[in-house]
Amino acid sequence: MIRKMIGGVVGAGFALGTASTAFAQAAMIKAPTVAQQATMVNKGDTTWMLVSSVLVLMMSIPGLALFYGGLVRTKNMLSVLMQVFMIVSIAGLLWATYGYSLAFTGGSPFIGGFGKALMAGVTSGTFSATFSNNVYIPELSYFVFQMTFAMITPALFIGSFAERIKFTPLMLFVVLWSTFVYYPVAHMVWYWAGPDFLADAPTDAGFLYAKGALDFAGGTVVHINAGIAGLVGCLLLGKRLGYGKEATPPHSLTMTMIGASLLWVGWFGFNAGSNLESNGVAAVAFVNTMLATCAAAVSWAVIEQIVHGKPSMLGAASGAVAGLVAITPASGYGAPMTSIVLGLVVSPLCFYFVSTVKNKFKYDDTLDVFGVHCIGGITGALATGIVASPALGGQGVIDYTKFPSVAAPAYDIAAQLVIQLEAVLITLAWSGIGTAVIWFVLDKTLGMRISEEGEREGLDIADHGERAYNY
């Protein structure tokens, strides 16, 4: 009797749910006006986006600044802090001036236009689409969230050529790199018309988005983009004085651990915030981020125990960052168990590049930006094509060419892997070539490298006339 009653309630609930869904779909508004979008904003989503923006800012300052700063020698600590601090500031101004417009307005598949330059038309009364039909967030909340991504990406690559680069040319490089490399890649990967408009405007999307490339929170846009730029920069700049002959140990692994921990905490805004809504998929991204990072930290420590006989704090922090990088593009697509596998796999790959490959080719990537961010980003970008499969517990993909949007009927791992590989190669080529051209021009006009005397003295004094520590 009880079983029949439960069955009846469930059946009635299913019938009511089906009717409610049909009614909701019938009530959905295709291509809503701005006034209609205003009624589709949820305060919880808005709050989550603003909190996520704060968390991502914390990743740059103080997180990344302390992580990198602790890894350099004492005489260069302040220079790293200053570089990160000013890159964040400059990137924010660029974003408001024209960066947001170039990245997130229509125009071509490769770059947007200047329709929102100087934040024209971006007010408290305009809105940005999320990944759900008829769900919007205030455009200013999206604007500032994406600003924090534009801030941290160029700050990442300074680790490759730390301790030997001049400050002012570096800042000019950041301006040009953001303009000609970051904004186009962000546009190609992330720009689209939105779920309420794409069905009627199927070509209003970035080049890689239109191809179906999956990048939930920045595997290509942030990590591969910055990682290959760092490698090109360190190769063109040359090795530090005494590289391979003099010991250059980190001056404060305590600060590096604090920085890595702040990165870990802030990364929840980075990944879960990229869902743009405070819902179940944001929770998926949050949990996947946590588990992949735990697995990668443990994996790196185990590798060091096997190879060196002792696990190090530097290794644990590097593993955690490698896990965070790898799960970034997959965070909203994968499942908890596949995220653990991804974390376990990425650390051995990154460890191999920062030790064996780096030593073999003898390039001076000071803080292993290429080995961790680029290799970790490539690993994550390709793995996304696998872990997103519903057959492995993944979220699958949504078909936004229909209104209302529906789950895609089938998921082909092999086909998605091809698309992911194409996105990786295009990002590597765009950023690598763009970085080389910009670097060459600035090096020939202003000179990118500090003088030998300045390098020996340390960038803190040579560039800034200050010391990080006065005892």
Quick summary of this structure?
Helices cover 66% and strands 2% of the residues. It has 471 residues and is mostly helical.
Radius of gyration: 23 Å
N-end to C-end Cα span: 81 Å
Q: Biggest sheet, open or closed, and with what strands and sense?
A: 2 strands, antiparallel
Multimeric state? single chain
SSE string, helices as H and strands as E: HHHHEEHHHHHHHHHEEHHH
Task: Give a count of the beta strands, DSSP E runs of length 2 or more.
Answer: 4
Determine the structural class based on helices, strands and strand pairing. mainly alpha
**Helix count, per DSSP?**
16
| Cross-sheet strand order for the largest sheet | 1-2
Mean pLDDT: 94
The low-pLDDT segments are 1-24
Shape: globular
Strand content: under 5%
Helix content: 55-70%
